[in-house]
Amino acid sequence: MAGQGPPVDDSSSVISDEDFSSGRTAIRIASVAALGGLLFGYDSAVINGAVKSIQEDFGIGNAELGFAVASALLGAAAGAMSAGRIADRIGRISVMKIAALFFLVSAFGTALAPNVEIVVLFRIVGGIGVGVASVIAPAYIAETSPPRIRGRLGSLQQLAIVSGIFLSFAVNYLLQTLAGGPNQELWLGLDAWRWMFLVMAIPAIVYGGLAFTIPESPRYLVASHKVPEARRVLNMLLGEKNLEITIDRIKETLEREDKPSWRDLRKPGGGFFGLYGIVWVGLGLSVFQQFVGINVIFYYSNVLWQAVGFSEDRSAVYTVITSVINVATTLIAIALIDKIGRKPLLLIGSSGMAITLITMSVIFAGAELKPNDAGELIPTLDGASGVIALVAANLFVVAFGMSWGPVVWVLLGEMFPNRIRAAALGLAAAGQWAANWAITVSFPGMRDHLGMAYAFYGLCAVLSGIFVWRWVQETKGVSLEDMHGQVLATPKPTANA
Length: 497
Fold this sequence. Notes:
By secondary structure, the chain is an all-alpha fold. The protein has one domain: Growth Hormone, Chain: A, CATH 1.20.1250.20. The protein has helices at about 15-45, 50-60, 60-90, 90-110, 115-145, 150-180, 190-200, 200-210, 220-225, 225-240, 245-255, 275-290, 295-305, 310-340, 340-365, 385-400, 405-415, 420-440, 450-470; strands at about 185, 190, 370, 375-380. The two termini are about 10 Å apart.
């Protein structure tokens, strides 16, 4: 990595009381920022429990259903594209408050929607909040975290996302159990599936309120010429050691006469595709994270497990179990990321995902098509095949949860130089949401060809490992200011983990 100093050896460092205190402060404010990830996860996955009800209530087909489910992702792409530039103008904290407002409006609008068009509209509004949160949380956490624990704090974003997914599944299961089904009336004349969306208003209000309690990013403050305030925040986060040196280094990496813009992502004289190499790497990581098909498990798992013979209640239970596994494996990543590094975890994850996805492809390719209650022919697994598919799906979640889930967000938050971080992260996140949309909207039409679907995801898992091995460089223990040289370099193939 160009401009990179030697990695910090956490094991040999002596942490003083001042370091411990500032570390606790960094953990507290990173946790608040990561609440955006909780809403991100809840809003993304809550649709799982409502898929069948939306299709029944509004009488729509598979194509319309796929668009309704994926509509939030269109908003997420738009939110991600704009969040970075807005954050560079009005600050990271202000953007968090805006995201909380989008989540709140989406919760009420979707819950009270009279038709599928209004569902789509307010899912897009919630998606904008998701896209904004997906950019601002990793950027803010990276900019306020000491290098020695930046990976662990950056992983809080993914922990919050998977916790939000678990929370949505648990809430969905509880509400449909209380009502006797997701499409049964629960309270105030509203069906259970509508309450699934309405519950999101609670964490949205909490997130918006807590955003008033954390400081602005010191990198943004320096860029806005508010150096005394930046000095105060850095003192809170890092203590008084080398404070002026840190501020001077931030100033050097932010020196400019013009306002930040998308042009900063292109090489001098480069056209639309003349992006810096590091920006292409970020886009590649984002696309591969989605093309392995992880969100097929989280958006459609209820429908998927019912299709292979499990009851509605058992499918909901298995979905909750899968989300618990996802949370647990994210904790593994948090424990390892600052010890063994980002790149090794990604390589391990790609290998595990490839094996499990190919296993699922083989199993579903041999599934027999049988009519369901509605008379539709669906792939059905009998005997041990269904159990093997369930185990393979959960092992896939383990492989993803300990690697590509958290590590990509950590890398996107820290790998870009200060000058282009918000804009580059926004572009990468928008690419991620566009890829997520493509996978999500295409899956309903592939439910009769699951073997082919999982074969494609497995191929993408194999390619993701090759991509990481050749082009992703390690960032463990490197300060954000030492990322500055990367913008001048085109990534070169490397086999070093």
